[in-house]
Amino acid sequence: xxxxxxxxxxxxxxxxxxxxxxxxxxxxxxxxxxxxxxxxxxxxxxxxxxxxxxxxxxxxxxxxxxxxxxxxxxxxxxxxxxxxxxxxxxxxxxxxxxxxxxxxxxxxxxxxxxxxxxxxxxxxxxxxxxxxxxxxxxxxxxxxxxxxxxxxxxxxxxxxxxxxxxxxxxxxxxxxxxxxxxxxxxxxxxxxxxxxxxxxxxxxxxxxxxxxxxxxxxxxxxxxxxxxxxxxxxxxxxxxxxxxxxxxxxxxxxxxxxxxxxxxxxxxxxxxxxxxxxxxxxxxxxxxxxxxxxxxxxxxxxxxxxxxxxxxxxxxxxxxxxxxxxxxxxxxxxxxxxxxxxxxxxxxxxxxxxxxxxxxxxxxxxxxxxxxxxxxxxxxxxxxxxxxxxxxxxxxxxxxxxxxxxxxxxxxxxxxxxxxxxxxxxxxxxxxxxxxxxxxxxxxxxxxxxxxxxxxxxxxxxxxxxxxxxxxxxxxxxxxxxxxxxxxxxxxxxxxxxxxxxxxxxxxxxxxxxxxxxxxxxxxxxxxxxxxxxxxxxxxxxxxxxxxxxxxxxxxxxxxxxxxxxxxxxxxxxxxxxxxxxxxxxxxxxxxxxxxxxxxxxxxxxxxxxxxxxxxxxxxxxxxxxxxxxxxxxxxxxxxxxxxxxxxxxxxxxxxxxxxxxxxxxxxxxxxxxxxxxxxxxxxxxxxxxxxxxxxxxxxxxx
Length: 703
Fold this sequence. Notes:
Elements: H1 14-39, H2 53-62, E1 68-70, H3 76-83, H4 86-89, H5 99-104, H6 110-122, E2 140-142, E3 147-150, H7 159-171, E4 177-182, H8 189-200, E5 205-211, E6 214-215, E7 218-219, H9 232-236, E8 239-244, H10 248-263, E9 269-274, H11 293-301, H12 304-314, H13 320-343, E10 382-383, H14 384-398, E11 402-406, H15 422-425, E12 430-432, H16 437-449, E13 453-457, H17 468-474, H18 478-482, E14 489-494, H19 509-513, E15 519-521, H20 526-538, E16 543-548, E17 556-557, E18 570-573, E19 580-586, H21 589-602, E20 606-612, E21 615-617, H22 621-631, E22 634-641, H23 646-657, E23 667-671, H24 680-686, H25 690-702
Parallel strand pairs: 1-3, 1-4, 4-5, 5-9, 8-9, 11-12, 11-13, 13-14, 14-16, 15-16, 19-20, 19-22, 22-23
Antiparallel strand pairs: 2-3, 6-7, 10-17, 15-21, 18-20
Helix pairs in contact: 1-2, 1-3, 1-12, 1-13, 2-3, 2-10, 6-13, 7-8, 7-16, 8-16, 14-20, 16-17, 21-25, 22-23
């Protein structure tokens, strides 16, 4: 470990250091202007970055056009440094010869970026998120213009695995990802999972801890018992440095060393930058009161912006005339941006209703790999699990952006051997992960933002609960928030009937149907296991792909021909008007239960039409309603628990839209509200089966 750096001029040129000062002053004046707006009642909330500029600015300046910046609330300095072309931002101040100027010349006009940033912070329609996101939660991905900025979510620490995924995505291009976290966020599980994963895979990730000694209001001695947070780096097997975060030259030097390690393939670095708590968590929340007065005064006395300003003057790195022109330019940039922001309109109300799912036909952001119209012939039939395996194999053959990750999926070929032969063919694209569901899903999200198409296997569907936050709060929301795709497929071997007990038998599909921005697929056949997975991998949206384990090796079919589309149900048995009609709606294993029941009902004069939903989201309401209007009766069957199960949604849609055609109430058959017992005879007591479907269908026929 490297000890706390002492104040030093460092290796930077005078011109580099003047640029650091220019951006530190711009960040400070931007902050002070918005603090004043909040005090004047013109802004409801403000998260100040005052006191962090000496850490964030030199790091932002060190980034190259193929690097990724991942920020939190207090990283305005890094944003400005990464976004702005210094020549156009500060004309006539001598920055033309800097390396940063050459690398950032293709970026948008600085004044335009600052105006849009002001609009973002003021909630105006021209903001980066068009009013959908607050303050610094936005992202700005303009890779052709050298900006890859991934913003935050409110769940602190959650973006560390995402940053690791971004690092994975740019590693082969010589890029790196830098992420900031406060001292409080280091207590989260994603801090551990993200760093551990980055270290194991030697990813070019640099995590900066901005340690201001307070998490909201909780002092560090109530957060962690370690003497120094940087000491955790050694436990992960990665480099670590602790630096004086008030000295931009020291920070620049430390980051330079970390960047060199990252770009040369030596893996991640943890940097703990010690800064002073000069503002509260948010302006006006009174959280600064927990900082003792003498301690607060020490931080104010060590304010890095005036300190660095005075140092450069004292070292004759700039003269008064240059400094005056700089201050004038900073003031103009800030006032122009804020005035522009206030003059702009609020978002149009229609923005609230913009799509949470990206149209599949869109080619604005990603290339959709082709679905082969005629997959290679196979001898005889394939079973369900072979359909899943072939879908991934063919997708990887068609598109080298498809990558697989999960526990034990490489040489071992997965708990159910679903990845059989794939690691042997593509050892760098089929990767084992640590036991780290949240970390793996976050990494997949970051890789997807950088242009990959990750397919993540949960060893059992039940384990996805450990990664729930990454799916519902990160992956699912990217398109609505930022209008960028996040094509992650999460494969869930789910369901019961095999005596696997409470933690290997759940059907969690309804957890995700409630979340806007996800597609949820539950194939029942080997053909659909292949075709729908190919469609899921090609889709620009995140997909939860539920594979019923009971079906893995019990059903067979031929590989399908032609493209598949998510969101289309299928009538797998038509009513023929030879008896009292009824519609049975199922998906996954329950489709087969319905088909078995339909055979029994036919002998009793009840003509059952069976609809296989195949995809829950998008829900094919048209096909379901057409069947119900034809039969006048509906029974919805699923293996997941009844309360909150997706069958309730199907029943509600039928009642809303087909009430006039109904000859009987809509019925549901589902798993009782119980965990799954281990002994098969006990499990059979609870599982929906053909006999129970037949009994309920008889009631509907008699109604």
